[in-house]
Specification:
Layout: E1 2-7, E2 10-15, E3 19-23, E4 32-41, E5 46-48, E6 57-77, E7 82-100
Antiparallel strand pairs: 1-2, 1-4, 3-7, 4-5, 4-6, 6-7
Length: about 100
């Protein structure tokens, strides 16, 4: 059984036992969290929500707050001696999916 959930404006396809990285949530490590289900797939078929599937929930457990890979932003204009370098690391929340249904 799998589900498509939404968190932080992005959609994720998850099954039980998956570990996903979602946009930072204000949850402490070890907290339980639930997500709304947009689509629920199983052996019997697929249920599509309008916008969510009624009665379906995905439960998860917060494993921690992490940072993503560093991204380098480099701007320059040729022949003008203009150079700017900046970096960015996005904050994510690591979540383990404990139940789908």
């Amino acid at each position: 059984m799998y589900a498509v959930i939404v968190s932080g404006g992005k959609q994720y396809r998850v099954t039980k036992g998956d570990t996903i990285y979602v946009e930072k949530l204000e949850q402490a490590t070890g907290d339980a969290i639930s997500f709304d289900v947009l689509l629920l797939g199983s052996d019997e078929g697929v249920k599509v929500g309008t916008p969510t599937v009624a009665g379906a929930k995905v439960e998860g457990k917060v494993l921690g707050q992490v940072k993503g890979e560093k991204i380098i932003i480099y701007k320059y204009k040729s022949k003008k001696n203009y150079h700017r370098k900046a970096g960015h690391r996005q904050n994510y929340t690591k979540v383990e999916i404990t139940a789908v249904g």
